[in-house]
Amino acid sequence: MKVAVLTLGCKVNKYESDALIFELSNKGIETTDKLEKADAYIINTCAVTNEAEKKSRQMIERARKFNPTAKVYVMGCASQNRPIQFADRNVNFVIGTASKKKILEELENQGQKLYEIPQEYEDDLFSAQTLSRAFIKIQDGCNKFCTYCIIPYLRGRSRSRNPESVIAEVSKLPDNVKEIVLVGIDVADYKIDGKNGLGILLEKLDVFGKRLRLSSMEDNLIDEEFLEKLKNTKNFCPHFHLSLQSGCDNVLKKMNRKYTTADFEKSVNLIRKYFPLAGITTDIIVGFPTETEEDFEETMKFVEKVKFSQLHIFPYSKRDGTAAAKLYKDLSGNVKTNRLKRLEKLGEKLKSQFLSANKTGKVLIEEKVGDYFEGYTENYIKCYCQGVAKVGDIVEVELEKPYKDGMLCTIKNQI
User: Fold this and answer.
1) Mean pLDDT over residues 31-51, rounded?
2) CATH (domain of 340)
3) Do 323 and 191 share a structural domain?
4) Helix H or strand E segment including 77
5) For residue 101, with 0-12 CB atoms within 10 Å meaning exposed, 13-18 middle and 19 or more buried, which class applies?
6) pLDDT band with cut points at 50, 70 and 90 for residue 153
7) Would you say residue 124 lies in a domain?
8) Residues β-bridged to residue 363
């Protein structure tokens, strides 16, 4: 028997899918994470936008093109949101976001079951890491309840993984893993004994000598104390993905974001005080229902003022069950597309400015494609490197000129 575990959406989903592959492999079952011919498919779905749910449904049909008689099992945020959309597609079994490991008990069964979302962190999935960069899940759920977002209703309230469990998993990583990325639904809300614990966790993990990187987080954690901890964390990679969502205070209020643009700018300035060349990337939603042209212009001006290193831009997606869907009328698709293109153009200019400000870097070589060794600097610049190296090396490079989505580099030394 061969099982393909296919993943849509965030890094948390990817970690959970990899953990299922690890469990299946331990049972002697052949597995893959690629869309190819298999006897069974487990599809880990996403519901962050309507398009993500659509792609989750389409994945069923794409899998069946490889094997029309294969069994199909569905789990994740989209099935938690509306399980019927998958049950109607003649899949074998459907579960949601809770107790994902139980899908392995249903591989011979038919039906659906949504398990109760737990109040404590479910510490039953562990991913086998084989690449140079490893994702480690430390948190699940969200307490923010932004008006546009359905994820808190699907993932439940914020809950943190015990630090001893995180340390135990990291201690078992193979030597070829040179970088750890801490992931979660709201990483900034990671707590130890009920208090902010992300800085403490990073300090504890620093002893393993592997590069440490944070996934997307909120700006509310950024203060002098936290940044001082990061500065003293030898292996911390200075890349901060801070979700802005809008550069207009009126829109932020309607989104139920808990900060102002002044708060956000203060956080960015603090980061640059400690890490002058930090990569600061962000998410922005264009076309939120209350966003006027003047509001959008405010976002454009704020984004240019902050000088992000890269923008991730999304058109607003109406999600039934959220406050915004109930309270506000959606804007036209043309308005969203127009604003998306304008902000993308600005983002390209800012990224170019950031790249040109970096002359050297330390790159973890993750793969070789054609003539280039590829990887990322500590501040998250994609590098295409020429010289002598091998996958898994950390090398010093000179950044020479823009190339594709990053920089063309020359390898100088191995670290």
Assistant:
1) 97
2) 3.80.30.20
3) yes
4) helix 77-81
5) middle
6) very high
7) no
8) 377, 395
pLDDT digits (tens, 9 = 90+) for 206-230: 999 999 999 999 999 999 999 999 9
- Give Cβ neighbours of residue 268 (< 8 Å, ≥ 6 apart): 219, 242, 280, 306
Residue that terminates a domain, selected from 112, 143, 168: 112
Share of the chain above pLDDT 90, in %: 96
Whether 122 is in a domain gets the answer no
pLDDT, residue 195, reads: 96
* Residues 294 and 307 both lie in one domain: yes
- Say yes or no: 304 and 384 in one domain: no
* 135: region left, alpha or beta (phi > 0 left; psi from -120 to 50 alpha): beta
**Cα distances (angstroms) measured from residue 414 to each of 130, 238, 247, 391, 396:** 21, 20, 41, 12, 6
| Mean pLDDT value of segment 121-125 | 93
Nearest partner of 360 among 407, 305, 323, judged by Cα: 407
Rounded CA-CA distance 135/180 in Å is 6
Q: Which residues contact 404 (CB under 8 A, 6 or more apart)?
A: 382, 384
User: Are 85 and 100 found together in one domain?
Assistant: yes
Nearest-10 Cα torsion for 291, 293, 295, 299 = 110
Give me the residues paired with residue 408 across strands: 384, 401
**Residue 326 within any structural domain of the chain:** yes
pTM for the predicted model, two decimal places? 0.95
Is residue 172 assigned to a domain? yes
> In terms of domains, do 62 and 156 share one?
no
At 300-353, the pLDDT tens digits run 999 999 999 999 999 999 999 999 999 999 999 999 999 999 999 999 999 999
Nearest Cα neighbor of 347 from 260, 265, 280 is 280
Q: State how many domains the chain has.
A: 3
Give Cα separations from 3 to 10, 67, 107, 333 (angstroms). Answer: 21, 12, 10, 39
- Structural domain of residue 397, as residue ranges? 360-414
